[in-house]
Specification:
989 residues; alpha+beta; Helix Hairpins; Rossmann fold; Elongation Factor Tu (Ef-tu), domain 3; 6 domains; 7-stranded mixed sheet; 7-stranded antiparallel sheet; coiled coil; P-loop_NTPase; SerRS_1_N_sf
């Protein structure tokens, strides 16, 4: 590339680094030796030319020593890691002796510390030598060197820098040349106009030329990632080849297998540049007043690599770079499609206009719903329609697609009809030659592209009109750098290059990044964006990162990140929603393929919490749901892989919350639960029926490295490829880490239990003061417990009536399993009515304790009501046959005692026998009810004789028993009568 002399000398006078003088890195130490010799001649006091030249040799020697020590250090660290993983950990698990291994571990750690210090010291010395060289060059006055020798040296240096600029990682900075951005009026057209079709020479594509691209600083270009998805053989790669002007190392099916089979087998990346649309120029194109002190008129100040960072909203961009992510379409490569879709901002859904919606088209549509809010339907291959029927056939194809999109969030998506390659997509995909390997140029000439396509201009116009400003991190913090790697390859003399997409944060040269899966860290040597050197990469950028001393075979795909920000997780709790097109059941305990970014592993999934999470969403997330549905950020795009785009709210998981046990995923909430949701549900807002949100426990069979809040996609990839069914089962947002060993018992999942009894007797009646109703405060129940049940564990539990009155079990009543219940508010229950004991038991509780959530109502006072006393006649009643019958026994609670008590012979009932066990196997004490009422003073009747009618055994009243009118009767010879036997009280002896 030709530049003027001023730029040449400025490049010569710029500071150098070690790579500029390393021949194996493309540098030329001889040029800088000659420059230092000239500086020594021109400047007094800097030493002789030979001494100045020795600075170069000293810096190279120190760098060589440092690299040698660093190699030894990395090797030792690898040995230490292998020892811990392959030897110590298995032995420790098997409880074997590891004394020798521990000693070896300590020795290696000491050596590592020593080598680390040595590497740091050598690096400081090397950097000091480089600083000396730069100081010497700074002392040299440029005007003093305007000689033939000086110009010769400068020219040689510039030539060397130009040569280096053609390498994969150029070492010189590109000049900041401005490129005027032509404004195109957005114009959507489904089919090409007759005028365009009749034109013999179609207009040039509005794509910036390759020469202009090379001269544009990457910081002034806004990058958007556009996924190209669709069924196999719909012409996706043909479309990518037509549009692309910059190719990556893995674009256009460059693998031999892809070219042989004629289909895309892996993700491909290429790009083209467009003028920034007018509607995006008015959004965030100016720096704030405070930032203007650090900004130049052309955006970020980066001349010395110390630019001030601004958010995407504060940067000024002149051009728009569209990075095309070419995804495979074959059904067996669905996990690759999922990985590609999670790094995109919008999607071009390519459809064969002659076939319409196909199986993988539907799956790509489901993925699009999870990962983006912007989608354009590209109806390809319209050239296969007869020319006289083309317009009508294209409209019919659009109508069918519109029907297929009904019910999705893309039912109003824009459509355009094109032909990416007239004559067949395989011709474009595998035919012809490319120049991508050398400099990343156009695959074919622009004229050839235009001649073999139809309505590409209509697609570009529509694309420009539909693109929206992306949502990016407000602050591009290097502490949150997260980079999805999709390709990794070595470059001789440079190092190892990792290409991928920045998911969050930012990075610069010399930053330290971590390889979580390899437990190692590396320093960034250089950055590129489509073969252009970059000083910073930020969220959304498609970039290449160069590191040294790293074996490319160790990583094919994965992530790199800021040290310590991405942890290994063996399990997680996620908020998930079923894909409504998935026809199968989501059974707890089943295994699913779970995708996080480019990683797909098997996981055991358990679902629960549908009812509780619905209440939580409506209580806490109502405003956020509105924003997510587009009412606030309407039209904005966002980097794929965001759980927000999948319709998943940001919720906190409460370990102390109780969850009703669920066997499996519930497709529809029970009617009783839906009635409790008083607020508008999300599905009613959208006008469709969405499956309810659930909590899900993901237990990964293989641990994964990923940050919390990531989007996860669950699939059943073991389903038959030709089954014509959606294999995407659910989407989710990672919320909390989960460890099966330590967290299993923390989950509070319960099952509801219910026991039903009946009212056996009623207590005394009262007239409730506040509503004048006749109620009972005490009742006696039965049939709830067995005779041998230990009642202590049930005392204090709440009992409910059918009408909703709540009471508390106060004690047992007798020894037949009966019980007494007190209702603080009173109850109108009747004898024979049902009593309900409702409680819950936690699945992980080893004690199987009983838990209840309700509470007693407030006490409501009442006034005692005396029921009429049934008086008994002195003469015995006569029966129809003339025989006499015994008087009926008095009811519990009837009024006894008073002046007439001594003249009557009331009857009672044996409730319980107790006391001393005599040699004749009889007890000495009986608890009798019915002889007295609660108001009677039983002490006044102490000593009265009581006769058991069934056995003729006699005893005497020995005192009261409780407050319910019961009394104790003492039998000197013991009582053999059974519980329930009647007794009669006689006169006082």
């Amino acid at each position: 590339m030709d530049v003027d002399m001023d730029m040449t000398m400025m490049a010569w006078k710029s500071k150098i680094d070690i790579n500029d003088i390393r021949a194996d890195k493309g540098g030329n130490p001889d040029i800088y030796r000659r420059a230092l010799a000239l500086a020594a001649v021109a400047v007094v006091g800097v030493g002789s030319p030979s001494e100045s030249e020795s600075y170069i040799d000293e810096a190279l020697s120190l760098d060589s020593q440092r690299r040698s020590s660093l190699t030894n250090l990395e090797g030792l660290r690898s040995k230490l890691s292998n020892l811990q993983i392959t030897v110590i950990a298995p032995k420790k698990k098997a409880k074997e002796d590891i004394t020798l291994e521990v000693e070896q571990l300590k020795q290696w750690k000491l050596e590592i510390a020593k080598l680390s210090k040595e590497v740091n010291d050598l690096e400081l010395k090397r950097d000091a030598a480089i600083a000396s060289i730069n100081m010497l060059l700074e002392k040299c006055n440029f005007e003093d060197l305007e000689s033939n020798d000086g110009v010769e040296v400068a020219s040689a240096m510039q030539e060397e820098n130009d040569n280096n600029g053609n390498q994969s990682l150029p070492l010189t900075k590109q000049p900041s040349l401005s490129v005027s951005a032509k404004t195109f009026t957005p114009k959507s057209q489904l089919i090409p106009s007759e005028e365009a079709a009749a034109s013999e020479s179609p207009p040039a594509l509005p794509i910036i030329s390759q020469d202009e691209i090379k001269s544009i600083p990457p910081e002034r270009i806004l990058n958007l990632n556009v996924g190209v998805l669709g069924h196999v053989d719909t012409g996706k790669t043909s479309l990518v080849k037509t549009l692309s002007s910059i190719l990556s190392t893995a674009a256009l099916d460059k693998s031999q297998q892809s070219r042989t089979r004629g289909i895309t087998l892996d993700l491909g990346f290429s790009a083209f540049l467009l003028p920034l649309p007018e509607h995006m120029r008015t959004v965030g194109n100016s720096c704030s007043a405070e930032s203007n002190r650090n900004c130049k008129t052309n955006g970020m100040s980066i001349d010395n690599g110390t630019s001030t960072e601004h958010s995407a909203q504060h940067q000024h961009h002149d051009l728009l770079q569209i990075t095309l992510v070419d995804c495979p379409g074959h059904a067996s490569l669905i996990r690759t499609i999922i990985g590609g879709a999670q790094i995109i901002d919008m999607i071009l859904l390519v459809v064969d206009a002659t076939k319409g919606m196909q199986t993988q088209t539907a799956e790509c549509l489901v993925i699009a719903e999870m990962t983006t809010r912007n989608l354009i339907v590209v109806l390809n291959k319209i050239d296969l329609f007869p020319e006289n029927e083309r317009e009508e056939r294209v409209r019919l194809a659009e109508k069918k697609m519109r029907a297929a999109l009904r019910g999705t969030k893309f039912e109003n998506a824009q459509m355009v009809g094109i032909s990416a390659c007239i004559g067949g997509e395989k011709v474009a995909a595998v035919g012809g030659t490319t120049s991508a390997g050398g400099g990343g140029g156009n695959a074919v000439s622009t004229a050839a592209k235009i001649a073999s396509t139809s309505n590409i201009h209509g697609l570009l116009d529509l694309l420009q009109s539909q693109i929206r400003p992306p949502n990016r991190d407000a602050l591009s913090s290097p502490d949150r750098f997260h980079f999805a790697v999709d390709h990794c390859f070595p470059i001789k003399g440079q190092g190892t290059v990792l290409t991928g997409t920045v998911l969050s944060g930012s990075a610069r040269p010399n930053d330290i990044v971590e390889f979580p899966t390899l437990s190692t860290q590396k320093k960034i040597k250089g950055l590129q964006m489509f073969r252009r050197k970059a000083n910073i990469i930020q969220q959304g950028d498609r970039a290449g990162i160069c590191v040294s001393n790293f074996d490319a075979k160790l990583m094919e795909r994965g992530i790199i990140a800021s040290p310590g920000t991405v942890k290994l997780i063996r399990g997680a709790i996620a908020v998930v929603r079923k894909v409504r097109f998935f026809k199968g059941a989501l059974n707890s305990g089943s295994k699913f393929h779970v995708s996080v970014g480019h990683t797909t592993v098997m996981a055991t999934v358990t679902f629960w919490g549908a009812r509780e999470i619905a209440m939580q969403v409506q209580r806490e997330e109502d405003e956020k749901l509105e924003e997510r549905n587009g009412s606030v950020a309407l039209g904005k795009s966002s980097l794929g892989g965001s759980a927000d785009l999948a319709g998943l709210p940001r919720l906190k998981f409460d370990w102390n919350q109780d969850f009703l046990h669920q066997e499996n995923y519930i497709d529809i909430l029970p009617a009783s639960d839906r009635n409790e949701l008083t607020m508008e549900s999300e599905s009613s807002r959208k006008g469709d029926s969405l499956p309810p949100l659930h909590w899900a426990r993901l237990e990964f069979l293989t641990p994964v490295y990923c940050p919390m809040d990531s989007l996860v996609i669950g699939s059943r990839l073991d389903t038959e490829v030709n089954a014509n069914a959606c294999r995407l089962a659910f989407s989710g947002r990672l919320v909390e880490k989960y460890d099966a060993k330590s967290d299993h018992n923390r989950l509070k999942s319960y099952t509801r239990k219910e026991r039903v009894g009946i009212v056996d007797r009623l207590g005394d009646p009262y007239r409730r003061n506040d509503d004048n109703k006749l109620v009972r405060y005490d009742i006696f129940g039965t049939d709830l417990f067995k005779k041998e049940t230990n009642m202590k564990q049930f005392v204090g539990l709440l009992i409910e009536t059918k009408e909703g009155d709540v009471g508390i079990i106060q004690s047992s009543f007798g020894n037949s399993g009966k019980f007494r219940v007190n209702f603080p508010g009173g109850t109108e229950i009747n004898e024979g009515d049902s009593l309900f004991l409702r409680f819950k038991r936690y699945a992980n509780d080893p004690k199987k304790a009983i838990h209840q959530d309700g509470s007693l109502p407030l006490a409501r006072a009442g006034t005692s009501v005396d029921l009429p006393v049934k008086t008994k006649k002195k003469n015995k009643n006569k029966s129809k046959n003339g025989s006499t019958s015994e008087p009926a026994p008095a009811k519990v609670g009837s009024v006894q005692g008073g002046d007439d008590a001594k003249n009557r012979n009331p009857y009672g009932e044996v409730e319980k026998v107790k006391g001393e066990l005599l040699p004749n196997d009889k007890y000495t004490v009986a608890i009798v009810s019915g002889l007295f009422s609660m108001e009677d003073d039983i002490t006044q009747h102490k000593g009265r004789r009581v006769c058991c009618l069934a056995t003729d055994e006699e005893g005497v009243v020995d005192g009261s028993f409780g407050k319910m009118g019961k009394c104790k009767v003492y039998f000197k010879e013991g009582i053999s009568a059974e519980v329930g036997s009647r007794v009669q009280m006689a006169d006082v002896d």
